[in-house]
Amino acid sequence: MASEIEVVEEEVVASIVYSIKNTGECIVDIEIEEIDEVVVELFANLYFGISTHKFSESTVSLIKEGMEEAGEGEMYDYFCNKLQEVAKIEMKGILDNKKDNPETSIPRIRKESEEPCVSPIDFLTGG
């Protein structure tokens, strides 16, 4: 008796679409077909991939290929230059913000000579 294979049709169950208007306004559109544990887990993986730049390399490759196929390879170079400019501006803003608000800056590293507020032994023994 031949085993039967169940064919499952692939379908998009969730999406996050980023768009930009000619005015510069950014739009985020989120669609989730059915909110259940499986779809929410898949959606969490999608969002994590976006937020950690996991998809950045493949996205940039698609941009390059698309522009080259359209005969606009020089526009890819222009895109990369503009991307660098935006990154510099954004990083400068982040650094300026941290300088103006030191409490939001990266925690300083304790020097070897400094003693911790709570001794690790006290912490482990509850003392």
Explain the layout of strands and helices.
Elements lengths: L13 E7 L5 E7 L4 H15 L4 H14 L3 H28 L19 H6 L2
Antiparallel strand pairs: 1-2
Helix content: 40-55%
Number of helical segments with 4 or more residues: 4
Regions with pLDDT < 50 over 5+ consecutive residues?
A: 123-127
Mean pLDDT: 83
What's the assembly state of these chains? single chain
Number of strands: 2
**Total domain units:** 2
Strand content range: 5-15%
Sketch the major β-sheet: 2 strands, antiparallel
Describe the structure.
There is one protein chain. The chain has 127 residues and is mainly alpha-helical. The chain has helices spanning 37-51, 56-69, 73-100, 120-125, and strands spanning 14-20, 26-32. It has two domains: 9-59, no CATH class; 72-127, no CATH class. Helices cover 50% and strands 11% of the residues. A two-stranded antiparallel sheet has the order 1-2. Helix 2 packs antiparallel against helix 3. It starts with 13 loop residues before the first strand and ends with a helix. The model is unreliable at 123-127 (pLDDT under 50).
Structural descriptors:
127 residues, mainly alpha, 2 domains, 11% strand, disordered C terminus
